[in-house]
Specification:
Elements lengths: L23 H14 L12 E3 L2 E11 L5 E2 L2 E2 H14 L3 E13 L4 H17 L4 E9 L7 E11 L14 E5 L5 H11 L15 H7 L8 E3 L5 H13 L2 E5 L7 H10 L13 E5 L3 H9 L8 E7 L5 E5 L5 E3 L13
Length: 344
């Protein structure tokens, strides 16, 4: 009998780390699998937090945290879980009312480490202040969770007059940034890979709701807010440009990249624009409200370094560009996938 070649076996597509990175692969996963399975895309853009349909003054957000290592300069997975969820609420103009916290812990995790991390989450919530009103705890087999995963859900109430949305950015708006970029991602990566920058780079992980409260006198003129976490500033600006159907131009000379972050990015061949942040926000306001907004941001320690980094243009729609130090322009693309895994 003549041997026959077996037919190739197609096991189908598989999840990649990049599907969770906040870039183009994440968008494809949402559009092609997650949203259709759950009933289709909501009206309007996908935001950091959603308005409750029957109670639009209330905002809800949920997030999971899988950062590795669990401790890093400037924070840990416990405090990060609180900061990240409070910030997602704040980007919709909401002050936090309550949190839930779910724990997935791996068999063998030292109880003292779990106690330390949960105490850190509790302290972060107390500092906001916001109560942790419910939660859940699961223990999984050794090797199934890399130590500890945390999931938080937050409920917030919108501040009067605030309706920020990624779709509300308008041509002529000033693009403001509340502080330096790249600190969180580089702090986590430097610690994980023992790159020698850990003593110089400290995560910016912190809550941003007080900054939003300071901006609240702008009311409807506060068009858009976004905290550039996964995918960094590049992903955040591309999402806004897409959802608002505008072009965004930023200036390289104004970008606040700390020297140790720039050095680490040079070493690794990374663009600081794609590195995650956990303690800064971008705000879009009419150009004639720029000074007012910057004064409000700079009135608080977490916004002391706030500055204008760019301008919204009419087109071409959904394009982000960077004017370089020599006056040329380059396109800032949406990151494709995961270049810095397990940072949030």
């Amino acid at each position: 009998m003549t041997p026959r070649c077996p037919l190739p076996h197609d096991e189908g597509e598989r999840l990649l780390l990049g599907h969770g990175a906040g870039g183009r692969l994440t968008g494809e996963l949402l559009d092609q699998l997650v949203l259709p399975a759950l009933g289709g895309a909501p009206d309007g853009p996908l935001e950091d937090a959603a308005l409750l349909p029957s109670l639009p003054e209330l905002v809800v957000s949920t997030d999971s945290f899988v950062v590795s290592p669990r401790f890093f300069p400037g924070g840990d997975i416990g405090s990060l879980a609180v900061h990240g969820t409070v910030n997602d609420l704040a980007m919709r103009g909401a002050m936090p009312l309550a949190l839930s916290l779910a724990v997935i812990a791996e068999e063998g995790l030292p109880l003292e480490e779990l106690r330390t991390l949960l105490s850190s989450a509790g302290k972060a919530a107390l500092d906001v202040p916001v109560p942790v009103v419910t939660g859940d705890t699961k223990v999984v087999d050794r090797g199934a969770a890399d130590g500890l995963f945390l999931t938080t859900t937050g409920i917030g109430r919108r501040m009067t007059g605030l309706t920020p949305s990624a779709a509300r950015a308008l041509p002529g708006d000033a693009v403001l940034l509340s502080g330096p970029i790249g600190l969180h991602g580089m702090a986590v990566l430097s610690t994980r890979e023992d790159l020698g920058f850990a003593s110089e780079i400290v995560s910016d992980s912190r809550c941003l709701h007080h900054l939003v409260a300071a901006l609240s006198p702008l009311g409807p003129a506060l068009h858009t807010l976004r905290d550039p976490t996964r995918g960094g500033l590049a992903a955040a600006l591309n999402e806004i440009a897409r959802d608002a159907r505008v072009a965004i131009e930023i200036e390289e000379r104004t970008l606040p990249v700390p020297e140790p972050v720039a050095a680490a990015c040079d070493l690794l061949g990374l663009d600081p624009l794609i590195v995650a942040n956990e303690g800064c926000l971008v705000a879009f306001v009419p150009a004639d409200r720029t000074d007012e907004a910057l004064s409000a941001l700079r009135s608080l320690p977490e916004g002391a370094a706030a500055l204008r980094i760019g301008t919204v243009r009419e087109g071409p729609a959904a394009r982000v560009s960077l004017r370089t130090l020599v006056g040329a322009k380059r396109i800032v693309d949406m990151p494709l996938g995961e270049q810095l895994p397990r940072i949030c």
